[in-house]
Design brief:
Helix content: 10-25%
Radius of gyration: 24 Å
Number of helices: 10
């Protein structure tokens, strides 16, 4: 009955201490980096285990399997001016390479997608900045999105669309206007991705003098690197001794080294993150990192505005180094430790998902949380993670919607349970007086 259900929900409330102190609730069993299956391990092990297929969330299978697929890729010339239909979404900052699912019901949104399909399948995505004390503001920078699959339906004369698009190129808004059909069209300037050449190119392979000094110098700057990487750095930056700057200065702007340092930071959050699922190119990798770190809209827009992968990687490395925990954006109550972050998708630990009402949630998956309570009953409908039911989770301090608890239908499915936290409801806590490099 209802009373029994309410009692069950009360016992499901989780309270995991950020300092990892012991907790007697078996629903908050400590997850270690050695646990490759993830999730709590309370109770007897099933006779066999079934690993969740992480390709399913990335494919957005919850939107259906009947979408029409489109092939090919549109590349707009850098520095060129283009006219695009514009989609505006609050609390969504799209990056190149990021997948964007859409459930469209408004006639103007459907018209915008039809217009895009009739040309090069490209439209622009811009976030709307929300403020507590002043009107919303349209951001002046966005990302082009290309439709890769779509399905239009007409029920009782009302057109709706399901769309999956992928972010492609950054752009700057020049002007916007509303067309006769209500679609917002924007004149945009396609922003370039600036490639910074190797600063030591041309120095030449001269005699590597002072190599002992180089090793000590680099080791003091990058203490987190292993001996093999330090030896590689010694060889790579040895010729810097024939320039005005010491080797460690050049190392601060080396793409390969910055990527390696970021990967070490991410693996320090949780060792279950897979390097093979991360992009290899510096530019694509920098956008992938920006997509997967749960920072606020203002910071994401600053990352999107950076025109070179080197500076973007430097800023992201500083954020990852200085981030400690995630708190409720509304009341600052601690919610999750960064070491609880893990990936339920091949695209990374955070992704954009759309609900049946068309609202897009950028959702971070974590093993454990603290200070949340469950609201309502579990549902299997429209689950972003097939095989898992979801229950709404609220902040215990201010009742702010924080995300969902996901629980496997079968005990053999791993992980047995996890949490999906809305990026819009989270705020990362950075070390005091931190400068993230903008």
């Amino acid at each position: 009955d209802d009373d029994d259900d309410d009692d069950e929900l009360d016992t499901e409330e989780e309270d995991v201490e950020i300092n990892n102190e012991s907790n007697e609730d078996d629903d908050t069993t400590q997850i270690t980096n050695d646990d490759t299956t993830g999730g709590a391990t309370g109770g007897a092990n099933p006779p066999f285990t079934e690993e969740f297929d992480k390709a399913l969330p990335a494919a957005h299978s919850y939107l259906g399997t009947d979408l029409d697929e489109y092939h090919g890729r549109t590349f707009l010339e850098e520095h060129s001016y283009q006219s695009l239909p514009i989609m505006t979404h609050p609390e969504v900052v799209l990056f190149p390479g990021q997948t964007l699912p859409l459930n469209l019901f408004r006639p103007t949104d459907v018209a915008a997608m039809k217009q895009a399909l009739q040309t090069d399948r490209t439209f622009g995505v811009i976030t709307i900045l929300l403020f507590p004390d002043r009107p919303p503001k349209l951001a002046n920078i966005g990302t082009t999105a290309e439709i890769i699959s779509a399905k239009m339906e007409n029920e009782h004369g009302i057109e709706t669309m399901r769309v999956i698009a992928v972010g492609r190129q950054r752009f700057e808004i020049v002007e916007t206007r509303t067309q006769v059909n209500g679609v917002v069209a924007g004149k945009v300037k396609i922003l370039p991705e600036i490639i910074i050449p190797d600063a030591l190119r041309g120095v030449g392979s001269q005699f590597h003098r002072n190599q002992a000094f180089i090793t000590r110098d680099m080791a003091s700057v990058h203490t987190e690197l292993d001996s093999k990487m330090k030896r590689a750095l010694k060889n790579k930056f040895a010729c810097a001794n024939f320039t005005w700057w010491p080797p460690w200065v050049y190392s601060l702007y080396d793409e390969t080294l910055l990527m390696r340092l970021i990967k070490l930071q991410l693996l320090g959050w949780n060792a279950s993150l897979k390097e093979e699922n991360m992009p290899r190119g510096a530019s694509a990798f920098s956008f992938w990192v920006a997509t997967n770190i749960p920072v606020e809209d203002s910071t994401r827009l600053k990352l999107l505005a950076v025109g070179t992968s080197v500076q973007r990687l430097r800023a992201e490395l500083n954020i990852l180094k200085k981030c400690t925990i995630f708190v409720c954006k509304q009341c600052s109550r601690p919610i999750a430790n960064k070491t609880e972050v893990f990936s339920m998708s091949v695209n990374g630990p955070m992704g954009a998902y759309v609900n049946p009402g068309g609202h897009i949630h950028e959702t971070l998956t974590v093993y454990k949380v603290t200070g949340l309570s469950l609201h309502g009953h579990a549902s299997w409908e429209h689950s972003w993670f097939p095989g898992y039911s979801w229950t709404i989770a609220q902040c215990r301090g201010c009742s702010n919607h924080m995300g969902w608890k996901f629980k496997a239908d079968k005990k053999s499915l791993k992980p047995e349970k996890f949490w999906g936290l809305c990026r819009a409801s989270l705020k990362p806590v950075l070390e005091k007086d931190s400068n993230i490099g903008f």
